[in-house]
């Protein structure tokens, strides 16, 4: 019987996985919540066809690929053999979407990652957004998030964001890299990332042309304004990311974009019981997770960028369809991982960020839990684990289910109590995307017959 | 004078026992292999119910506990100030029948409860929406239970434990207890833990669904089994549902031993905003895979009771295991086989509500005080507990 | 396309997200939080943070960054936690 492979996520990893699995003879369903393929990296202007995305045209024409866009996977259920992937298709966020349960002999998770934001006073003011938000808005909608924009955080991703902002007419006042920038790269990463270096040099030239200052070991430590950001305070950081007193500067801006690395979208992998290592999904050389028949590719397994994600996707797709590891992709993936390890090394998040928020700074934006309230819960309520921390302080109990604050709260609480806060516990979201109660009440099996 | 007591398990039952003993002047040490209040207690809804229990010993315990909670909260407030906030709401319950067949059994059940002192007021079906404006119009009978209440279980357990510490007791998390040591006379003298021995004069098994395993390790097995329950959580809503509202089927589900899935929709708003919908009951061992069929059934019944919820987002589902004895009664008292070993477990889905009286009864029995209610039905040497183990 | 924002007609393009529509209309926030009444708008922009919630056609808790506008949409500010509007 033909193997049925379900691929979740149509970014570089998912598209490659779907093509590789379909080429290997499997019947593939590729699911993504966006209206079109590409993911965050190859995001297209609204209404653009899939042909602009590498592999996109082949994907839509492939006889063995079914493309399900505008579709969220809200849970994955284990079957005796394989998995049942529960989806809803239609306008975000319902109601009235169409429900379906897809049977997967093999499942490829390529759910990607999102920007990590760290809390600082004023980070919840309108106009403060993640770097990814500014990027998506510029690339997908052709809009600049502001006229005078500060970009701050860590990692090479800040540069293409600044470039996109300039491209839609914003003035980027500064790009602030909290780490040491290119100076932190190891020689092996420099070698493995030759292609990337050329790309980064291109961004640097463009920013120079537009007179955008790029400063290292500096970041935004406060946003000011009444009902939107109107200015920021930036400061120099020491190696642990504590603020160097006396280096604070105030800058007028109308938008701030922050990105301190990426957090993988782990909920489906966690629900499927995949083992994690250091916060990422553990995989074998075939990209198979600890759960037989469940594969993972791309940022879920480690932050490494689009090329590595695509190589991993090719391996995952081929192996999910029952083929041997494609050697060329394996070589590419190995090279990509050396570069990724170098990136992780050069752009870490340092513990000094925990000194940025004030007592009344929100840690959890959904439930409006301040740093002071979190500390009280952790210390005085004996909240020594993630579950009790959540239920005593309400941190992470809002609609985002800890996606934004989970890791930050766990790290802050660990500093207060020495308790054990497993970051994977913050990614335990058995309902991976909210659905309306009436949608949950429907039985798609019955409706579709 | 009693020497130290070790309580194994920092859930709400262990916390309530430790608290009552601390108040009685006993020095206690609470040990938990994980974090406090992070297993069964963290997966409950916070039910303090008299409405769901038929006349009998469990209802007696529930009534005593319902009476006890407010004074317990007052005592916590004295000890802890603002740290005693546990979201207590004496909101009352409304049980509704939605079929003709269910109407009379509900009214009969309520009459029997009234005979033993439960406040249970029949509400004419057409007036049910005065109590709950968003309720489905297709109600065939309704009973209002003013005594039903709600609290937030993790806050309650953590407050009880904070008061234990304040009174000189010790709470240690991440310490797994693997067994007990006895002296020449066979009496408990210490517990063995992952962090060495802890000497004690008595040990209380408050391990919830894992009580059976601990009792076996302690050399005196009792039959306590896990029953799984799942609760759905909606996005925050404005105050929409005023009472704990549930379908009359719940009454049947609680007392049943069937392994098959049982659900009934208990629907309630919480002070924080989300509506809780629970709960399912399944005997599936310690299997905790989420089953879509179970979630769907909970959702279906909740929407049937409150049609407006159909367009509200569900953001979370949580599940946990509740400890039950084959005869569905809690176990509270000394183990005759190992002097110094005590059990406080088997409260199934009612442990939050029953914790206050359980802790008090345990402290009375341990210190030799006059018990405030008859402990005999909860004794350990019941055939159902010993033989099945 | 004909779309209204808080009752005012607003020009909209096919494929535009509700968030892009609101930003193009010079709105930077379109929700206030239920406890502190704090203004909120776009934050993560990719559907993760649930900060950009808005009421569309009477249904609250819709992510503006994920929802694509449709002809006739009535979009309005979300005030704290809201119940779905009863529809006739």
From TrEMBL, chain A:
Record InterPro entries: BFD-like_2Fe2S-bd_dom_sf, FAD/NAD-bd_sf, FAD/NAD-binding_dom, Metab_Enz_Cyan_OpOx_G3PDH, Opine_Oxase_asu/HCN_bsu
UniProt entry tagged with the keyword ATP-binding: no
Top-level lineage group: Bacteria
Residue intervals of the FAD/NAD(P)-binding domain: 4-313
Signal peptide: 1-20
Coiled-coil residues: none
Pfam families, per database record: Pyr_redox_2
Keyword DNA-binding: no
Key words of the record: Oxidoreductase, Signal
TM regions (residue ranges): none
Protein name as it appears in the record: FAD-dependent oxidoreductase
Origin species: Actinokineospora xionganensis
UniProtKB/TrEMBL annotation, chain B:
Pfam annotation, one family: DAO
Alphabetic keyword roster: Oxidoreductase
SUPFAM superfamilies membership: FAD-linked reductases, C-terminal domain, FAD/NAD(P)-binding domain
InterPro entries: FAD-dep_OxRdtase, FAD/NAD-bd_sf
Domain FAD dependent oxidoreductase: residue ranges: 4-365
PANTHER family in the cross-refs: FAD-DEPENDENT OXIDOREDUCTASE DOMAIN-CONTAINING PROTEIN 1 (PTHR13847:SF287), SARCOSINE DEHYDROGENASE-RELATED (PTHR13847)
Name by which UniProt lists this protein: FAD-dependent oxidoreductase
Organism field: Actinokineospora xionganensis
TrEMBL record, chain C:
Protein name as annotated: (2Fe-2S)-binding protein
Database matches in Gene3D superfamilies: 2Fe-2S iron-sulphur cluster binding domain, sarcosine oxidase, alpha subunit, N-terminal domain
Keywords, ordered alphabetically: Oxidoreductase
Xref: Pfam families: Fer2_4
Keyword Oxidoreductase: yes
InterPro entries linked to this entry: 2Fe-2S-bd_N, 2Fe-2S_ferredoxin-like_sf
């Amino acid at each position: 019987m033909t193997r049925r492979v379900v691929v979740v996520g149509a970014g570089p990893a998912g598209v490659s996985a779907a093509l590789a699995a379909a080429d290997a003879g499997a019947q593939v369903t590729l699911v993504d919540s966006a209206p079109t393929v590409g993911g965050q990296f190859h995001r297209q202007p609204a209404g653009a066809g899939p042909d602009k995305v590498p592999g996109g045209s082949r994907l839509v024409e492939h006889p063995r690929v079914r493309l399900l866009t505008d579709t969220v996977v809200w849970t994955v259920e284990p079957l005796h053999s394989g998995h049942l992937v529960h989806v809803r298709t239609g306008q975000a966020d319902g109601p009235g979407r169409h429900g379906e349960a897809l049977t997967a002999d093999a499942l490829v998770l390529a759910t990607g990652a999102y920007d990590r934001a760290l809390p600082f006073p004023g980070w919840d003011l309108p106009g403060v957004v993640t770097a990814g938000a500014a990027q998506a808005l510029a690339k997908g909608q052709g809009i600049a998030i502001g006229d005078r924009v500060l970009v701050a955080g860590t990692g090479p991703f800040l540069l293409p964001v600044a470039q996109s902002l300039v491209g839609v007419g914003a003035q980027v006042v500064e790009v602030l890299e909290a780490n040491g920038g290119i100076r932190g790269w190891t020689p092996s990463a420099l070698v493995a990332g030759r292609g990337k270096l050329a790309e980064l040099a291109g961004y640097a030239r463009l920013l120079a042309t537009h007179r955008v200052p790029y400063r290292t070991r500096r970041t935004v430590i406060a946003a000011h304004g009444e009902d939107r950001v109107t200015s920021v305070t930036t400061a120099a950081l020491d190696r642990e990311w504590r603020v160097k007193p006396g280096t604070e500067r105030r800058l007028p801006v109308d938008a701030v974009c922050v990105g301190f690395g990426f957090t993988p979208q782990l909920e489906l992998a966690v629900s499927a019981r995949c083992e994690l290592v250091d916060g990422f999904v553990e995989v074998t050389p075939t990209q198979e997770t600890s759960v037989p028949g469940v594969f993972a590719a791309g940022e879920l397994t480690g932050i490494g960028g689009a090329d590595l994600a695509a190589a991993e996707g090719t391996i995952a797709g081929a192996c999910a369809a029952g083929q041997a590891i494609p050697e060329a992709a394996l070589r590419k993936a190995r090279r990509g991982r050396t570069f990724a390890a170098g990136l992780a090394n050069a752009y870490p998040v340092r513990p000094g960020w925990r000194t940025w928020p004030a007592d009344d700074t929100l840690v959890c934006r959904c439930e409006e839990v301040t740093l002071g309230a979190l500390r009280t819960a952790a210390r005085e309520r004996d909240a020594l684990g993630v579950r009790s921390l959540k239920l005593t302080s309400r941190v992470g109990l809002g609609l985002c289910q800890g996606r934004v604050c989970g890791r930050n709260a766990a790290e802050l609480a660990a500093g207060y109590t020495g308790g054990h806060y497993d970051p994977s516990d913050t990614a335990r979201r058995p309902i991976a995307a909210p659905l309306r109660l009436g949608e949950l009440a429907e039985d798609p099996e019955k409706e579709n017959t | 004078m009693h020497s130290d007591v070790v309580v194994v398990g920092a859930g709400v039952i262990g916390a309530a026992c430790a608290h009552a003993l601390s108040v009685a002047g006993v020095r206690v040490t609470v040990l938990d292999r994980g974090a406090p209040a992070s297993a069964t207690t963290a997966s409950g809804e916070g039910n303090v119910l008299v409405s769901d229990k038929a006349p009998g010993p469990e209802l007696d315990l529930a009534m005593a506990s319902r009476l006890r909670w407010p004074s317990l909260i007052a005592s916590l407030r004295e000890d802890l100030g603002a740290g005693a906030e546990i979201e207590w709401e004496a909101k009352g319950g409304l049980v509704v029948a939605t079929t003709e067949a269910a109407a009379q059994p509900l009214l009969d059940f309520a009459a029997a409860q009234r005979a033993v002192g439960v406040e249970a007021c029949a509400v004419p079906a057409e007036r049910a929406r005065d109590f709950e404006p968003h309720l489905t119009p297709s109600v065939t009978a309704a009973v209002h239970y003013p005594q039903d209440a709600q609290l937030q279980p993790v806050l309650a357990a953590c407050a009880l434990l904070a008061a234990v510490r304040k009174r000189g007791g010790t709470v240690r998390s991440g310490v797994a207890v693997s067994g007990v040591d006895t002296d020449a006379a066979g009496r408990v003298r210490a517990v063995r833990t992952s962090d060495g021995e802890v000497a004690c004069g008595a040990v209380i098994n408050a391990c919830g669904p894992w009580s059976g395993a601990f009792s076996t390790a302690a050399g005196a097995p009792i039959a306590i089994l896990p029953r799984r329950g799942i609760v759905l959580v909606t996005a925050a809503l404005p105050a929409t549902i005023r009472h704990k509202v549930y379908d009359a089927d719940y009454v049947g589900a609680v007392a049943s031993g069937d392994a098959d899935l049982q659900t009934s929709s208990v629907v309630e708003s919480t002070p924080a905003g989300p509506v809780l919908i629970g709960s399912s009951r399944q005997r599936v061992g310690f299997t905790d895979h989420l089953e879509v069929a179970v979630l769907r059934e909970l959702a279906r019944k909740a929407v049937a009771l409150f049609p407006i919820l159909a367009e509200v987002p569900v953001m979370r589902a949580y599940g946990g295991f509740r400890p039950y004895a084959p005869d569905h009664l809690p176990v509270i008292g000394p183990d005759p086989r190992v002097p110094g070993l005590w059990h406080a477990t088997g409260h199934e889905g009612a442990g939050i509500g029953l914790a206050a009286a359980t802790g008090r009864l345990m402290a009375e029995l341990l210190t030799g005080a006059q018990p405030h209610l008859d402990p005999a039905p909860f004794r350990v040497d019941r055939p159902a507990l010993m033989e099945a183990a | 396309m004909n779309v209204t924002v808080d009752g005012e007609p607003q020009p909209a393009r096919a494929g535009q997200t509700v968030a892009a529509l609101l930003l193009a209309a010079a709105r930077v926030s379109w929700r206030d939080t239920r406890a502190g009444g704090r203004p909120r708008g776009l934050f993560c922009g990719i559907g993760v943070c649930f900060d950009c919630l808005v009421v569309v056609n009477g249904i609250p808790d819709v992510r503006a960054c994920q929802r694509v506008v449709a002809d006739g949409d009535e979009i309005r500010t979300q005030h704290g936690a809201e119940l779905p509007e009863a529809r006739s």
